């Protein structure tokens, strides 16, 4: 009996600790990017879905943007195909684009929607093509070779975000739905583009002037040369870390677009370990949020 009371007091403490955060964030938009690498375990998937439902229930407006890179890799492999990545971007030819659309706009999007709804949320899945939510253009890319010459790289159907039609998201929020967005975009000619999910999350956060951008991934945060979680990152420090190879691969778009989102009006962005159960709740409702924080007011 005494133990039960102790447990109940602990629960009361936890709820009380959350109160100022609930009050502060009520009515605010939070964009949560759910990376394919964080979708690995059914327990973690459920804890993610419950966190999103919890945010909505206390009056915050979560907007989910998801990835699914490893899931695309799996289907490509089953089909006997593969694709290269350059600085975290998948080189996407027409046949790869079809697979990307099938996986991100299909199975991955629907399973996240299903999971959130199973936990009592009202999620609606959409891709950037629905109501032209994500206007895109072909992404130009260049890289400096070992001789110091700039080389143009053709990434195929990889897109950059031109604009986000926030009316669509506002409408869903106003009707109490949780938007779950797959990172596909469309241009004026109707071409479909594969866009890195971190880029889409950063841009959605920017266009929504979100309170927070939470990027869930499979590592503790941005690691410095010594392997410690880096904090207080500035654009020039990040450029330095990319140039010397400390930041590479999928971390390049993640940190770059998180910085850009904050520069363009998002209050804070945080790169957190999605392998920790309830990583989103910890980040939003406690002081114990961990990972790499980028904020306008350090
Ligand atoms: N400096 C760094 N700090 C942390 N992770 C890094 C760094 N440089 C490269 N990475 C790689 O970036 C990965 C996260 O990016 P990515 O695989 O695209 O994840 P997600 O699927 O969550 O978007 C990490 O697992 C790690 O391998
Ligand atoms: C252009 C590009 O790289 N697009 C990504 C989109 C999915 C994604 O970003 O998934 P994660 O967040 O799980 O890495 C891809 O094709 O893998």
UniProtKB/TrEMBL annotation:
It catalyses: N-acetyl-L-glutamate + ATP = N-acetyl-L-glutamyl 5-phosphate + ADP. Signal peptide: none annotated. It is found in: Cytoplasm. Transmembrane segments: none annotated. Its EC number is 2.7.2.8. Residues 28-273 form the Aspartate/glutamate/uridylate kinase domain. Pfam families: AA_kinase. Gene3D superfamilies: Acetylglutamate kinase-like. The record marks 33, 254 as: Transition state stabilizer. GO terms for molecular function: acetylglutamate kinase activity. Pathway: Amino-acid biosynthesis; L-arginine biosynthesis; N(2)-acetyl-L-ornithine from L-glutamate: step 2/4. InterPro entries: AceGlu_kinase-like_sf, AcgluKinase_fam, ArgB, Asp/Glu/Uridylate_kinase, NAGK-C. The keyword Thylakoid does not apply. Keywords: Amino-acid biosynthesis, Arginine biosynthesis, ATP-binding, Cytoplasm, Kinase, Nucleotide-binding, Transferase. Substrate binds at residues 68-69, 90, 194. Catalyzes the ATP-dependent phosphorylation of N-acetyl-L-glutamate. Belongs to the acetylglutamate kinase family. ArgB subfamily. This is Acetylglutamate kinase.
